[in-house]
């Protein structure tokens, strides 16, 4: 009875997170209405929230059809593979591992259980199936890079707590003029920069209400023209929303902590090949790509996908300045957070060629945790607690940390069971194919898969498989795994591909057809660019990390 109640509570909290995401966007959409309208909006939202209260804790969780199918299909695939698939050259442990991949992947894709819960399956089943010992499996969930992500996320949460991230974004946007094209560029630059250090989901959630306020103002100023300014049709509004979402995704690629796919890649390479990607090394690779892709996507949105007929919009800058005035003067706490953030970023960048000479043993994880600990130690001026308190730290995405661990456990299981060698043998037929064709296939296939599943789950699944096939194909695993990371990151067609896409879609300013038609061309462009980058730029940056 207690177990059932606890289980239903877990699903209730899962639904609350989803509904809060949607309703927070709706509520923030009406950020500047007149008082009378605001009262009506609040009353409507209150009634809607009461009507939409999902699955109260005392009621059983109802599965959707897809979830119900996935719930039974996952174990069924495992059993079929376990008792039907018996290749002569495959060990019993490798067969079990292949079945576990099918089971976990099915539950991840269908969300039969919450994705983080599914990520705990290796702890339960790997020791039972003889794939790995318990100590080896659980070690994956305590990988140093998981704590790198935790430390950096605590710093990001502190920036959000004191509104420093909003001040940075508004300050960047305030430099742009009243030209609609430069307004969009300003939003994309601010979003891309913040996403390098804060999760792209949090960045987009912050930027969307500001974007909506600007789009609404522009719409009102063009009422007496022949331009259709209704949400979902207005070219400026659509381009602004998509630009914000796409910049958040692209910006996250700039640093190791900017997106989970990057962190998982570094951890997988370290576990499989003892190859460590330094924070500064990844920035040398990621930042130039951000600098290249943000202007390219901006140009595509304003000139090809959603060209604007108006070259000047009165009052666009005033909205941003008003938002800055509402924030008031920079607080003591903001200055402390900015100082510690800057010192942490400086330490990350200079660690490999400067700090290691003075502090042997220092690494990016230690730097991140030191930054977070300092925020816990320094008292705030206007509050009774410290700059970072435990209630804020509790907002850490613990589920993503479990997902990291599950992905690393899968990678270790593939190696320990010998499945990597068996997969490599089956790829011999492709060993003579040109590298460009191999890259095109890998990046294109993973991009397509990411459009329909979580990009974090996708990257977690494919990294070990790509690594397993690299040796047989005669290709450096580092190169192919970075290609897989790019394929899992640059997916722009559908809301489910990435959280920023889902958030702007919920705003009402972007239709599914508009996102798909604009995103498909960006996908194709990024697939080709990714292939060229992997062929010619990756060897320059990561050449010293080759495991060939």
UniProtKB/TrEMBL annotation:
GO terms for biological process: carboxylic acid transmembrane transport. The keyword Transferase does not apply. Keywords: Membrane, Symport, Transmembrane, Transmembrane helix, Transport. Residues 31-59 are annotated as: Disordered. The chain crosses the membrane at residues 68-85, 115-132, 138-157, 169-190, 236-257, 277-301, 336-355, 361-378, 398-415, 427-449, 461-484, 490-510, 522-542. One of its GO terms (molecular function) is symporter activity. It comes from the Bacteria. InterPro entries: SLC13A/DASS. It is a multi-pass membrane protein. Residues 34-49 have a biased composition (Basic and acidic residues). Coiled coil: none annotated. The keyword rRNA processing does not apply. One of its GO terms (cellular component) is plasma membrane. Pfam families: Na_sulph_symp (PF00939). It is found in: Membrane. NCBIfam families: dass. Belongs to the SLC13A/DASS transporter (TC 2.A.47) family. NADC subfamily. This is Sodium-dependent dicarboxylate transporter SdcS.
């Amino acid at each position: 009875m207690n177990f059932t109640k606890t289980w239903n509570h877990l699903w209730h909290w899962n639904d609350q997170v989803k509904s809060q995401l949607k309703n927070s966007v709706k509520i923030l959409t009406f950020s500047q209405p007149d008082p009378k309208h605001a009262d009506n909006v609040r009353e409507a939202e209150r009634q809607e929230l009461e009507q939409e209260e999902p699955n109260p804790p005392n009621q059983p969780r109802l599965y959707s059809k897809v979830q119900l199918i996935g719930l039974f299909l996952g174990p069924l695939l495992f059993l079929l593979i376990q008792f039907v698939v018996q290749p002569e050259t495959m060990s019993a442990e490798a067969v079990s591992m292949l079945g576990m991949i099918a089971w976990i992947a099915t539950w991840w894709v269908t969300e039969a259980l919450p994705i983080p819960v599914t990520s705990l399956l290796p702890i339960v089943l790997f020791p039972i199936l003889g794939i790995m010992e318990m100590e080896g499996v659980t070690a994956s969930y305590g990988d140093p890079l998981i704590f790198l992500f935790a430390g950096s996320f605590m710093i990001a949460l502190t920036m959000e707590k004191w509104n420093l991230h909003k001040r940075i974004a508004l300050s960047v946007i305030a430099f742009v003029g009243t030209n609609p094209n430069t307004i969009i560029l300003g939003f994309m630059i601010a979003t891309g920069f913040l996403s390098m250090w804060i999760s792209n989901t949090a960045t987009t959630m912050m930027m969307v209400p500001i974007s909506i306020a600007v789009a609404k103002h522009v719409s009102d100023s063009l009422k007496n023209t022949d331009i259709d300014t209704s949400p979902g049709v207005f070219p400026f509004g659509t381009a602004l929303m998509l630009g914000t979402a796409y910049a958040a995704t692209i910006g996250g690629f700039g640093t190791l902590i900017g997106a989970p796919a990057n962190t998982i890649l570094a951890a997988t390479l370290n576990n499989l090949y003892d190859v460590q990607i330094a924070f500064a090394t990844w920035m040398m690779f990621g930042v130039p790509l951000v600098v290249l892709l943000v202007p390219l996507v901006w140009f595509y949105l304003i000139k090809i996908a959603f060209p604007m007929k108006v070259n000047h919009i009165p009052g666009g800058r005033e909205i941003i300045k008003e938002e800055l005035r509402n924030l008031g003067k920079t607080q003591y706490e903001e200055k402390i957070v900015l100082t510690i953030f800057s010192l942490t970023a400086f330490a990350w960048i200079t660690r490999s060629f400067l700090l290691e000479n003075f502090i042997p043993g220092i690494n990016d994880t230690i730097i991140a945790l030191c930054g977070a600990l300092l925020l816990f130690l320094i008292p705030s001026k206007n509050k009774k607690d410290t700059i970072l308190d435990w209630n804020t730290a509790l907002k850490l995405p613990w589920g993503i940390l479990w997902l990291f661990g599950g992905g690393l456990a899968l990678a270790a299981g593939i190696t320990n069971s010998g499945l990597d060698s068996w997969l490599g043998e089956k790829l011999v037929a492709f060993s003579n194919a040109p590298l460009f064709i191999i890259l095109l296939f890998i990046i294109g296939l993973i991009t397509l898969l990411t459009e329909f599943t979580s990009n974090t789950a996708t990257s977690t699944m494919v990294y070990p498989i790509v690594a397993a096939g690299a040796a047989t194909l005669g290709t450096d695993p580092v190169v192919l795994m970075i290609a897989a990371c790019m394929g899992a990151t640059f997916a722009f067609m559908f809301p489910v591909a990435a959280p920023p896409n889902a958030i702007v879609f919920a705003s009402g300013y972007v239709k599914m057809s508009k996102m798909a038609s604009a995103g498909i061309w960006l996908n194709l462009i990024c697939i080709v660019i990714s292939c060229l980058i992997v062929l010619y730029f990756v060897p320059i940056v990561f050449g010293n990390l080759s495991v060939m």
